[in-house]
Automatic annotation (TrEMBL):
Any single Pfam family the record assigns to this protein: Aminotran_1_2
Annotated InterPro entries: Aminotransferase_I/II_large (IPR004839), AspAT/PAT-like (IPR050596), PyrdxlP-dep_Trfase (IPR015424), PyrdxlP-dep_Trfase_major (IPR015421), PyrdxlP-dep_Trfase_small (IPR015422)
Family per similarity comment: Belongs to the class-I pyridoxal-phosphate-dependent aminotransferase family.
Protein name: aspartate transaminase
Coiled coil: none
Length: 390
């Protein structure tokens, strides 16, 4: 019996980009200590009050089937938060709750594309983007953002790729680069979408992690509310990665169809998880700032360390929990550098090439370990780069 091409083609016949990460995990399993700066997993865990509310909800009986589109109270809470942050009128009818941001990305592309349609996305990209697009039987097409432009996508390059496409996926603050898209960048993106009747899928899971500049949701731009599907999540803003609770914000008719999709796939999110998410969101912006504070602090540490040497340069890290480091002075690819750093110093980082071709010669560092250990690992990384610099 054969497995469907839909599944066997998810990786596109290439690597999934996780080789360094998997080697690091195998080293740890074999008893070798490794400093992991690979994935976007908080070094703190979900706050005790959130877990206590989850426990209360579960013991209170909210363990059966919950409303498939999300509980009314959580959808109201998400809608109110989005409206407060963006100024765009948002009601529960614009919200569908999903099992995390990844599920939302899949569902959004299922809504925006038909099998065989072209779906655009920006390179560098989060590693699952092309596979997610292939998973709905659409055709992924990457549009490079360039180091020379500080990885801000260029409107003319998007416009050149847009004819015949059905959707464009963007991510700001950006994983892996840490770049926050500027208003001119987003205006150009919005214009291309309007000119070419593209759905804009905006991955905004890092919207609470902005260190410099301002997060702008493209749904708030003129004439974009009915053309935009916004992906959100509790994972990064509230350190609830394992709870798998996210959402899509979109036009009411799109949300109705997305609810039909959920009925035939995920069948919703457990009620006690949704109750805990509602509780967490109601803690307000100060709580979200506390969750983001370690990454803001470590960014400053990194800037100071990197300023003291010349082998490694930092892509402007304006948001998210990552640093994109340019190591082209070594003459090594990001992948070769990452493997060599892991083998020599047992420090694991992600190669830029794991996130597309535009980030070749770079590495991504997750700021997800305790401050002093993070600083020491970054100093070692820079010293290693200096020893390899040409």
């Amino acid at each position: 019996m054969q497995i469907s091409k839909r599944l066997t083609s998810i990786l596109g016949g290439g690597s999934d980009g996780w080789g360094v990460f998997l080697r690091a995990r195998q080293m740890i399993a074999d008893g070798t200590p490794v400093t992991e700066l690979t994935i976007g997993e908080h070094d703190i865990r979900t706050a005790a009050p959130i877990l206590q509310d989850m426990h209360r909800a579960a013991l209170g009986g909210h363990t059966g089937y919950a409303a498939i589109s999300g509980t009314t109270t959580l959808r109201d809470t998400v809608a109110r938060r989005v409206q407060d942050r963006t100024g765009v009128k948002t009601t529960r009818d614009n919200v569908v709750i999903t099992p995390g941001g990844q599920s939302a990305l899949f569902a959004a592309h299922a809504a925006a594309t038909n099998p065989g349609d072209t779906a655009l996305f920006i390179d560098p990209y989060y590693a699952t983007y092309p596979g997610t697009i292939r998973g709905v039987s659409a055709i992924p097409k990457a549009i490079p953002a360039h180091a020379k432009d500080a990885f801000q996508p260029q409107g003319d390059e998007i416009a050149a790729a847009a004819p015949g496409a059905k959707s464009l996926l963007i991510n700001s603050p950006n994983n892996p680069t840490g770049v926050v898209y500027t208003r001119p960048t987003l205006d150009a993106i919005a214009q291309v979408c309007k000119d070419n009747a593209l759905w804009l899928i905006s991955d905004e899971v890092y919207d609470t992690q902005v260190w410099n500049g301002t997060h702008i949701s493209p749904r708030a731009l003129p004439d974009m509310a009915d053309k935009t599907l916004v992906v959100g999540s509790m994972s990064k803003s509230h350190a609830m990665t394992g709870s798998r609770c996210g959402w899509i914000i979109g036009p009411e008719d799109a949300v109705e169809h997305l609810t039909n999709l959920a009925t035939h796939t995920t069948y919703g999110v457990p009620g006690y998880i949704q109750d805990a998410a509602e509780f967490a969101l109601n803690q307000g912006p100060a709580f979200e700032e506390d969750i983001a504070a370690p990454f803001k602090r470590r960014r400053v540490l990194a800037q100071d360390i990197i300023a003291q040497q010349n082998a490694v340069s930092l892509v402007p890290a304006d948001g998210a929990m990552y640093l994109m480091l340019d190591i082209r002075s070594t003459g090594m690819s990001g992948e070769d550098f990452a493997y060599a750093l892991l083998d020599t110093h047992h420090i694991a980082v992600m190669p830029g090439e794991s996130f597309g071709t535009a980030a070749a010669g770079h590495i991504r560092v997750a700021m997800t370990i305790e401050d002093s250990a993070f600083a020491q690992a970054l100093k070692t990384l820079c010293t290693f780069a200096e020893s390899r610099a040409q």
